[in-house]
């Protein structure tokens, strides 16, 4: 009996504490981050930029439905005059995979002037995207265009980093993302809480490229 109690104290109690802390962090991010999510573009206040977080790109450079809808929502925000610039952020850490130029080409094809399109090739996750938006692109206010499952985390991180952020829903269709995405998002919210609390540094930084300038300065 004594050995069981010791086992509980040494192993199960700390593990339970970790799970409880992760659960609390998840709830905090989901609750606090859900503020200021707008369903209608007309309800958004003007901002310096609209952020398009990266998502999957298939072979041949075709956007996934999730990514296409994020870009489409951002384009609508820009065309409505609610954001002066577009910041496309995503993963281009490998030569054979490129979320960012795919997004850039989408906006160019839809008539957005080149100087209004900023590209962040080191937005490897949501924390890196919003951290770099603030510290590399010097964004003070922005709209985040992404799906409802992702918006609370993105907005929580943006506000913790010091950006005046609002969210616009990019749920333009139903997505068959499954339970794996639910579990992934729960874990990502807990990680987001600790990243913000510890003021973690992203994998890549670099020289500043002010969002008030010419977006082509950020292109590769």
What does this structure look like?
The protein is an alpha/beta fold. The chain contains 6 helices and 8 strands, in the order αββββαβαβαβαβα. The protein has helices spanning 2-33, 65-79, 100-109, 126-135, 151-161, 178-198; strands spanning 37-38, 47-53, 57-58, 62-63, 83-89, 117-120, 141-146, 164-169. A 6-stranded parallel beta sheet has the order 1-8-7-2-5-6, sandwiched between helices. A hairpin with a 3-residue loop joins β3 (57-58) and β4. α1 crosses α5 (151-161). The radius of gyration is 19 Å and the shape is globular. The termini are far apart. The model has no long low-confidence stretch (mean pLDDT 87).
Query: Total number of helical segments?
Result: 6
Cα gyration radius (Å): 19 Å
Across the major sheet, the strand order is 1-8-7-2-5-6
Portion in helices: 40-55%
> Separation of termini?
65 Å
What pattern of helices and strands is seen along the backbone? HEEEEHEHEHEHEH
Mean pLDDT: 87
- Strand proportion, as a percent range, falls in 15-25%
- What characterizes the major β-sheet? 6 strands, parallel
- Backbone structural class: alpha/beta
Q: Detail the poorly predicted runs.
A: none
Instruction: Write down the overall geometry.
Output: globular
Number of strands: 8
